[in-house]
Amino acid sequence: SRTLVIAAGQLGPVARKEKRSSVVSRMTSLMETAADRNADLVVFPELALTTFFPRWYMEDQAEIDAFFETEMPSEETLPLFDAARRLGLAFSFGFAEKTVDDNGETRRFNTSLLVAPDGAILLKYRKIHLPGHRENETWRPFQHLEKRYFETGDLGFPVAEALGGRVGMCICNDRRWPETFRMLGLQKAELVLLGYNTPVHYPPAPEHDHLQDFHNHLSMQAGAYQNGTWVVGVAKAGCEEGCDLIGGTCIIAPTGEIVARCSTLGDELITAVCNLDRCREIQDNIFDFAQHRQPRHYGLLVT
Ligand code: CDT
């Protein structure tokens, strides 16, 4: 069987002033714990290296760019790659990516990477469903300016042959969209890695605040089951700069069942033994796309 020990490395709050080196050492300490538990892979949250900076309206580009990475690994993030090599672990994590494209244009994305133990980049994804707004909305207790600071990902929803199976990634708000998981499912993904920063308070519809944990698990469990894939969902959790973020980091089987779950809102590592062959239970039966899917009747989905 194709069995992996998968670890989810939940992070507690990251302060606005916290240095990359401090977050990186919190992450490497979770990697050590993962290695003690014989993990093959550790998954970290969205924008793991910094505080969730889209909660602030900023106009000074230098101030904004201080939250972005221009190289990976950099001097500050190299210890993650060194730890992976030393411990024989693959890892994935999210970060703000600033890059210059072939036309000399500066581009900024909300990105995640899957890195092999030897430092090779196995998979890269740039977030497609950017939530929130573009302008300063002063009525909000905090902003959600992802649409201002990032552009829509331009890499599609790639799936790579990696770690003995087929691996895809998505980021935070992507998990709420069935299209995200179906794009990965149609490529026969067996493992979907995703990180999130989800505030408890949703200013446009505060009547749903008490449902944040429910909607988080509802989306990820449905995505896992309806596509017969393992899902690893990892939070940045806790009270970050006065903003409460949900936890609920979990590992979900292709049946949609949660098999491991964090119980705190701080730095915490959970592991599960994940047999990728279990995807067949779903992908060859109830959701055998070749036999049962009816794309001729789904035209509206792409209009
Ligand atoms: N980071 C991220 O995508 N967060 C959103 C918050 C809700 S929309 C403002 C999420 O979907 O969890």
TrEMBL record:
Pfam families registered for this protein in UniProt: CN_hydrolase (PF00795)
Taxonomy, superkingdom: Bacteria
CN hydrolase domain boundaries: 4-278
GO molecular function: hydrolase activity, acting on carbon-nitrogen (but not peptide) bonds, in linear amides
Keywords recorded for this protein, A-Z: Hydrolase
Protein name in UniProt: Putative amidohydrolase
Annotated organism of origin: Roseibium marinum
